[in-house]
Amino acid sequence: MTKLDINLNVNGETYPIKVEARRTLADALRDDCGLTGTHLGCEHGVCGACTVLVDDQPVRACLGFAVQFEGSQIRTVEGLADGDELHPLQQAFWDHHGLQCGFCTPGFLMLAVAVLEKNPDIDDGELRRALASNLCRCTGYQNIVKAVRAAAGAMKR
């Protein structure tokens, strides 16, 4: 199959890669860009483990083809921390035990970043509805909600 030359802008860095037209963004990020924080779960857009931000909107990376995202600004979990300093959401997940196995965590972090950047004063009902689009098999969600709520305050400062 023919491979196409594309440039993906991920976390402010350009990745010139060669991909088949049918290669998903998730696979391109993991295999071609070496950014393995984007996890593949269901590969049907249901679980949210592969959530990344594209032009500041949460997107299921398993559902789109990499070629569709050339020219977009993509943010992955690798772009959250600033060197050794964790992003407030990452720190809050740590402090409030918002993760257990950690498989779903990158997707939740990216979804929550988008939610809080759009509406830092989100109420609990809206927050729970937004987070309900991602699945976690371990935590029971209570600590994820606590962590996102704590991060909202930290991100406002």
3D structure, described in words:
Strands 2-1-5-3-4 form a five-stranded mixed β-sheet, sandwiched between helices. The protein has two domains: 3-77, Ubiquitin-like (UB roll); 88-156, DNA polymerase, domain 1, CATH 1.10.150. It contains five helices and five strands; from the N terminus they run E-E-H-E-E-E-H-H-H-H. It starts with a strand and ends with a helix. The model has no long low-confidence stretch (mean pLDDT 96). The chain is α+β, with helices and mostly antiparallel strands and 157 residues long.
β-strand percent reads 15-25%
Instruction: Using the CA coordinates, give the radius of gyration.
Output: 15 Å
Identify the quaternary structure here.
single chain
Find the CATH topology of the largest domain.
Ubiquitin-like (UB roll)
How many helical stretches? 5
Instruction: Supply the CATH architecture of the largest domain.
Output: Roll
Low-pLDDT windows of residues: none
Mean pLDDT: 96
Count of distinct structural domains: 2
How many beta strands in the DSSP annotation? 5
Q: Tell me the name of the CATH class of the largest domain.
A: Alpha Beta
Cα shape: globular
Major sheet: arrangement of strands: 2-1-5-3-4
Superfamily at the CATH H level of the largest domain?
A: Beta-grasp domain
